[in-house]
Specification:
With 307 residues, this protein is α+β, with helices and mostly antiparallel strands. It has one domain. Helices cover 22% and strands 24% of the residues. The chain has ten helices and 16 strands. It has helices at 24-32, 34-44, 47-56, 66-72, 90-94, 141-144, 156-160, 202-205, 211-214, 282-289; strands at 7-10, 15-18, 111-113, 118-123, 165-171, 178-180, 186-187, 191-193, 217-224, 228-235, 243-245, 258-262, 267-273, 278-280, 293-296, 301-305. Strands 1, 2, 4, 5, 7, 8, 9, 10, 13 and 15 form a ten-stranded mixed beta sheet that branches. A three-stranded antiparallel beta sheet has the order 3-16-14. A hairpin with a 3-residue loop joins β9 (217-224) and β10. α1 (24-32) packs across α2. The termini are far apart.
Length: 307
């Protein structure tokens, strides 16, 4: 039997909506059908599958997919930084820039913002969360931060964020695919944690939320004068050609400043705050308790610092 439709809370309209899933039939076959699961194990999760698909989206012939995609998903072309006709490939369109005014940044030194457009889950205390995409389905910070093979005394990052707060920001193929800093601070050099490339659609994550800690990901620590240490992680997924970092390590990054981009495919950004350093906005917390994602845009208010 197919899983339930993917529903999310639209913060702007304050209504529950049903997601129009890109490639839904393929996703349901791969993650819900026994034959599809074998194909998943054999081919889909492997990097070569996504690299080949990403390569196809970088060929000039792929530009023919742009206008049909815009029409099908009713995208607002007026906020694009350049004309639709200037994109030479689908991938160029996919990681397009937007006009600056299209994503205003919530003001206030003590205000954190969402790092990307998408559907978000927040957990004020990741250790006490009842579950992420499904009640009872969780992963540990040790796994997320790639420290499961280290001796206890060397698990520095998982200890740093123990009992801390987490944001899972899921980007669909229809979304703006650049990610940004949620707070002002000084970033470290992004570090790669190698892994496979499962889908990050709830169709997949409801079956196994640990796909998020098995996938390839990159982690950057941001030293914030207001929020303390903040971890910004980008998670790759099926058909993501690559994660491109534009961050400049060691230089102060402003809140809302671009950190990087994803090439073709759905993807995810995970943000960690230290224990007791942030109070998320109540509406997002309430939805997340029910495993319902909140749709919000990059730059919108996420929460405030706790001193």
């Amino acid at each position: 039997m197919p899983t339930d439709p993917i529903r999310f809370y639209n913060r702007r309209t304050r209504t529950i909506e049903t997601e129009q899933v890109y490639g839904e039939g393929w996703l349901r076959f791969t993650y819900e059908n026994p034959v599809g699961k074998f194909f998943l194990w054999l081919v889909v999760k492997r990097a070569i599958f996504s690299h080949v698909y990403g390569w196809q989206m970088s060929k000039r012939v792929s530009a023919g997919k742009i206008l049909p995609f815009i029409v099908q998903y009713d995208l607002d072309v007026t906020i694009f930084a350049k004309s639709v006709y200037d994109f030479k490939t689908f991938n160029e369109f996919f990681y397009r820039r937007l006009k600056r005014e299209a994503r205003p940044i919530a003001e206030g030194k003590d205000v954190a913002v969402f790092p990307a457009d998408g559907r978000h889950l927040v957990f004020p205390n990741v250790d006490e969360a009842a579950g992420f995409y499904v009640k009872g389905a969780k992963f540990s910070l040790v796994e997320l931060l790639g420290e499961e093979l280290l001796p206890e005394e060397q698990r520095v990052r998982s200890k740093l964020f123990a009992g801390g707060a987490m944001v899972i920001s899921r980007l669909c193929p229809v979304d703006y695919h650049r990610f940004h800093f949620p707070v002002e601070g000084v970033p470290t050099k992004p570090e790669l944690i190698n892994g496979v490339l499962y889908s990050v659609s709830p169709i997949a994550l409801r079956k196994n939320v640990e796909y998020l800690v098995q996938n390839k990901r990159m982690i950057t620590l941001v030293e914030s004068p207001v929020f303390g240490q903040v971890a910004s992680m980008e998670v790759g997924a099926t058909n993501v050609g690559s994660i491109v970092q534009t961050v400049i390590p060691g230089r102060v990054a402003e809140k809302g400043e671009e950190k990087g981009l994803f090439k073709f495919g759905g993807s995810c950004v995970i943000t960690l705050f230290q224990k007791g350093r942030i109070a998320f906005d109540a509406d997002v917390v309430d939805q997340s308790k029910e495993c319902v994602e909140t749709y919000a845009l990059m730059g919108e208010r996420l929460g405030v610092a706790v001193r």
